[in-house]
């Protein structure tokens, strides 16, 4: 993997984490380390299906494509996952917790990393 790609990914993750911490402080969102709990059964079903598709696509990519393609797939998966979480938390979740704001921040951060890593791949 090129050093530029690794640096880009690292800067993207550190930037997103910094923004996450600032938004949590501003909106008084509790930071706790816990397992993620889906909003409802539909949400759980969508995330499990997405995970299975991701695992199969990584296996196929590992056999036929370069390792950089696996990073692109990873950040594509994380972008879609966090986007789904944002929508489900906003529509079906408890809006007073404002956890959907954090999911949105991570979705944007992962999408920037996904587009950047796709750029480095080509």
TrEMBL record:
Keywords in alphabetical order, please: Membrane, Transmembrane, Transmembrane helix
The UniProt entry, under InterPro entries, shows:
DUF4181
Keyword flag Transmembrane: yes
**Which parts of the chain span the membrane according to its record?**
6-24, 68-88, 100-121
Instruction: Kindly provide the name given to this protein in its UniProt entry.
Output: DUF4181 domain-containing protein
Q: Which organism is it from?
A: Virgibacillus massiliensis
